[in-house]
Design a protein that fits this description.
This protein is an alpha/beta fold and about 300 residues long. The protein has an 8-stranded mixed sheet, with helices on both faces. Helix 3 crosses helix 8 and helix 4 runs antiparallel to helix 7. The chain starts with a strand and ends in a 10-residue tail after the last helix. The relative contact order is 0.14.
């Protein structure tokens, strides 16, 4: 499997491409959400691969990427590209702040020698992407934020969420994945429509294998008072065309949160996918792809009939 060292940490990545008569195609980068991996973006990437070379990767501590540095030379720089001035300092101890994950992406693009890209990011990954858009605007053509939004701080609710999240992360025995129908139960809160069993099982596997410190740390950094105050400012600052896609029945990031975020900036176009929840790209593939293609101003590939 292909790995690349980013700030001392081995990151898994893969390309989804189709042969084309074009000399070069634009690159679309896909970013997954909390305790997920690049796996659940493959079907979307395959559908868009006629127009884009699609880069999928697992964020630090999730999926197949390591959670901690494997080798951290004291003299190693975070990045060598002049396009990433924020990441020019020597490697220090990495934290679970979402800004750090945005910087991870900048270094990944540098190491793969990629310039301006398109980005499609989901859930917590969409928060990372929003921060990336504003920290590195020169590297973005257009952005797609799937299931994202702004939320108000509620001390009691946040405290309860962090406590519950801690229990969930701590209790993840490997045998859990062998219980019949556990994948269906695990995904019930995330879905409104059914998705293939293989997709449900992949989600459960990603959750069970996520690095403990990373899974716990990002719960505190992504759902926090600081993020509730920061994200409205970040959405308001966006300068590139951005599509924000929401699932009508999303319980994790309700659609109203997405509407509120989109209302803060005329660069953001809001799209609601009916009868879906937290994974509209898997629950209603045709509608999701139609909205994305309309935003990107590309046409669907012709279906060949024998």
């Amino acid at each position: 499997m292909p790995y690349i060292n980013v700030r001392g940490v081995d990151h898994y990545y893969e390309w989804v491409k189709q042969s084309s008569t074009a000399l070069t195609k634009p690159v679309m980068v896909f970013i997954h959400g909390w305790a997920g991996s690049a796996r659940y973006w493959r079907s979307t990437a395959n559908a868009l691969s006629e127009q884009f070379d699609c880069l999928l990767y697992d964020m630090r501590g999730f999926g197949r990427s390591a959670g901690k540095p494997t080798l951290v030379p004291a003299s190693e720089s975070v990045a060598t590209s002049e396009s990433s001035p924020e990441t020019s300092a020597a490697i220090q101890e990495l934290t679970y702040e979402l800004e750090e994950y945005a910087d991870d992406l900048a270094v990944l693009l540098d190491k793969l020698h990629l310039g301006r890209v398109y980005i499609n990011a989901h859930s917590m990954g969409a928060s990372v992407a929003t921060l990336f858009f504003n920290r590195y605007p020169q590297r973005i053509e257009k952005g797609i934020l799937t299931c994202s939004g702004i939320f108000e701080y509620d001390e009691k609710a946040f405290t309860a969420f962090h406590k519950f999240g801690g229990y969930v992360v701590k209790f993840r025995p490997k045998w859990l994945g062998k219980i019949p129908f556990i994948d269906r139960m695990f995904m019930a809160r995330f879905l409104h429509r059914s998705i293939p069993k293989s997709e449900r099982q992949a989600f459960l596997q990603d959750f069970l294998e996520a690095d403990y410190d990373t899974a716990l740390g990002t719960i505190f950094t992504s759902v926090s008072k600081a993020q509730s105050e920061l994200m409205p400012q970040e959405f308001a600052k966006l300068t590139m065309p951005t599509l924000l896609v929401a699932g009508e029945y999303d319980q994790i990031i309700p659609a109203v949160m997405g509407r509120q975020a989109a209302a803060m900036n005329d660069k953001i176009e809001f799209a609601l996918i009916p009868n879906t929840a937290h994974f509209p790209m898997l629950e209603d593939v045709p509608t999701y792809l139609q909205r994305v293609r309309e935003f990107l101003q590309i046409t669907a590939p012709e279906v060949k009939v024998n």
